[in-house]
Write a structure and sequence with these properties.
heterodimer, A: about 325 residues, alpha+beta, Aldehyde Oxidoreductase, domain 4, four-stranded mixed beta sheet, about 30% helix, about 25% strand, B: about 170 residues, Ubiquitin-like (UB roll), DNA polymerase, domain 1, 2 domains, five-stranded mixed beta sheet, elongated
Chain lengths: ~325, ~170
Amino acid sequence: MKKRGLGVGCMFYGIGFGFSRQDISAATIEICEDGSVIVRSGEVDYGQGSDTIFCQMVGEELGIPYDSIQLITADTFTTPNAGPTTASRVTYVTGNAMVKAARAVKETMQSVAEDILGEGDLVFMDGEIRSEYPDKRISFRDLAKTCHARGVQIVETAWQDITTKDVDPETGQGDAYATYGWASQLAEVEVDTETGRVEVLRIIAAHDVGKAINPSNVEGQIEGGVLQGMGYALTEEIVQEGGYLKTGSLGDYMMPTSMDTPRIDSHIVEVADPDGPYGAKGVGEPALIPTAPAILNAICDALDIRVTELPANPENIKRLILEKGKEEEAS
Amino acid sequence: MAGKEDKVLLRMKVNGEEAEVAVKPTWTLLRVLREELGFTGTKKGCEQGDCGACTVIMDGKAVNACLVLALQAESKEIETIEGLGTADALHPLQKSFIEHGAVQCGFCTPGMLMSAEALLRENRKPSLEEIKIGISGNLCRCTGYTKIIKAIESVSQKNREALTPFRGQ
């Protein structure tokens, strides 16, 4: 028989290292004579898309196209320390360093532009610096050239420090992290009571990310996290016997494949964080945290069985079904 | 007879060009492509046929290059990611992967694209289920497959539209 169930998993997650552990990041922005922009930061993009959003942020601040920005990252010879890509911290910490550095460069350029144009209230947009008068504007490129000609410094490094206070050692109370991500996921599963196999039919994932700098990237993070959470809940298991790893290959350690991919509906919730860049927080780890609880709750809804050991693979589910049957017979 | 340390001349076509390489009988096609011929777009992942990162097309079929002995490729036509498209002239699948955000760390991407290309050659308009089966031998840890499936589905949909007979005004 096939039984269906629904389950919800909720979570909050501290962004950054928290608990008074050092959490700093830096970025350097240099405007070249031809108006091109070089951004340097030690932050490494290993697929989560931070390079993309850094260029978006710098482009947004300076009013220049995304592709006029050259990014140099994770090169210890030339890039300032940004800390590691971990703890769902990169957007929140390095993103802020990017925005700060861009604003510092912009401030210097703006004062030069005010001097050239003889106008205040200037706006940086579409590769130009504009005043309220259409004839009084200057291209970003010409402004960069003038700054270089005048010997004005248009290289800036900005540091962002989100190191928090530790919690009270006696009571454990306090605000351990600089900010928190929040999420709820709902899972719909179908359990085959003959084989114990659990199929995830659908996941609905709502994540408060503060502000989605790149919504497609955020969806990608959520979808990837959901599948990792599914693997954690249903198939992935490290088995050791006598100190030897028995699941040392991808043939033994069962990662989800395209065949396991359910329909995933991502809902991006934007409650701006007052200290985040444009209100943004992190989403990397939050994406996978509520998935397993949601699936286990859905299994409980379908079978009235509470799974307390992972993975909920066919062997374990079938065993629990048989045990429940025996208990019911006995009583 | 050649011993296992003796090299044997292998002739095959790689991305339309003749290739002649002296190979040991124990070498895999993956090793020859990456280390002898420099086609490093084909990724070396698990080397056990589990992950699909080394997928290439051999005589029209997607294969794991790590499970094909180099000499099995004798007189065959091999296609790697380098032959699929270039930065200036992207293949429709590559364009679609970019448009749909189907690339994260990128390690599985060449293999995914070759599996998808082999699928679309066999079946120009695969269904969602057929797409999932087509890339089921390619593991991805970043994307959750969703955007990859959507990217391939979009090309399938375009093929479907292109194949729809014109019905007039």
